């Protein structure tokens, strides 16, 4: 049992440490936004589609009943970081570094 635990710890370390062995970039982004990956192209209620997972093979879905709402749900729009917002708003954008603005 101790050997198995050490083997699993080593495998986990390799997955985290070696580039290319970790989760795909789109999956990490989905999980970073507290999303879930579904096999179907549409999300079940109360989830909303928020991109892809596993190299565009699955759909990233976020819970619409949680405190994590998309920018468009809150009446804003997503802009890249180089654009200055007159008024920022809380909301999720598909690109992590982008921000949610009500007015640009």
Main attributes?
single chain, 104 residues, alpha+beta, Antimicrobial Peptide, Beta-defensin 2, Chain A, Anthopleurin-A, 2 domains, three-stranded antiparallel β-sheet, globular, disulfide bond, defensin, Defensin_beta-like, Gallinacin-11
What's the helical proportion of residues? 10-25%
Q: What's the total count of β strands?
A: 6
- Mean pLDDT, as a whole number? 77
Largest sheet features: 3 strands, antiparallel
Number of helices: 2
Shape: globular
Q: How many domains?
A: 2
Q: What would you say the CATH architecture of the largest domain is?
A: Roll
Query: What is the radius of gyration?
Result: 17 Å
Beta percentage is: 25-35%
From the structure provided, what is the oligomeric state, counting identical versus distinct chains? single chain
CA-to-CA gap between the ends? 59 Å
Poorly predicted parts: none
Main location: cytoplasm
Subcellular location: Cytoplasmic granule; Secreted
Protein name: Gallinacin-11
Family: Belongs to the beta-defensin family.
